[in-house]
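S.,

Sequence below, as promised.
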Amino acid sequence: MHNGEGRRPQIAIIDPNTLSALGLRNILQNVMPIMTVDTYGSFSELAANDPDGYFHYFTAMNVVLENMSFFQERRRKTIVLTLSLDTMSQLSDFKCLCTNVPESELVRSILALQQGAHGHGEHLPPMPNILKQKILSDREIEVMSLIVQGYINKEIADKLNIGVSTVITHRKNIMEKLGMKSVSALTIYAVMHGYVDINKI
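The prediction came back faster than expected:
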């Protein structure tokens, strides 16, 4: 299952908390649409599925602590999921991701991780052409960039000298064109396509 040339890079999430794993998978698939994301409820499930075929492991802290030698050897590929930033000290060798934060913050952390780890994506396979196409008009890109920076409709209207109803129409069109339902998904799209600097969100 893991072999085959030109396959998508794969990411494994190992987390006994199913809801947490599925939520993270959803965000990761938005951040890295070229990746395949598999979820495992335990280390033994991962071990049975060619664990070295994965590009990255997003792993619950207890799984790392119980299988330290495996993850220590692969620490460059391992991102530890923590509920609190206070626990970093015991895992100072690893990149950690605090999942107990608002969605917008989690999305920002994952984007920062993705950009930091892959030097602006240069080590990632090319995006499929459909994702590279310019789908939005210039005005829609301006509106989107302000939305993801946290401006409300009225502020966007003032900044762009357009009516609030026009902003709402643009907003609806942007979401429909991109097939997205949340501002988090929009944020991911905007950062990944270089429309917004991650430091502005």
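Residues 1 and 49 are 9 Å apart (CA to CA).

Coffee later?
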